[in-house]
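During the no-cost extension, the postdoctoral fellow (Dr. R.K.) reprocessed legacy sequence entries with the updated structure-token encoder. One reprocessed record is reproduced below for audit purposes.
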Amino acid sequence: MINLKKKQAILLLYLLEGYSRRKIAKLGGVNRETVSKYINEYEQSKAN
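Re-encoded structure tokens follow.
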């Protein structure tokens, strides 16, 4: 399981730095599907 700091880092790299999901996964040492999951969760919560 990923801790909150790692999740925040994923979102910051995506939103502020414009990194791709693949690049974030490679940099963070996490699965690309995990990165997509957290980004999708954020985008859904923002839409509501």
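Residues 17 and 42 are 16 Å apart (CA to CA). The chain has one domain: 4-47. The remaining legacy entries will be reprocessed before the final report is submitted.
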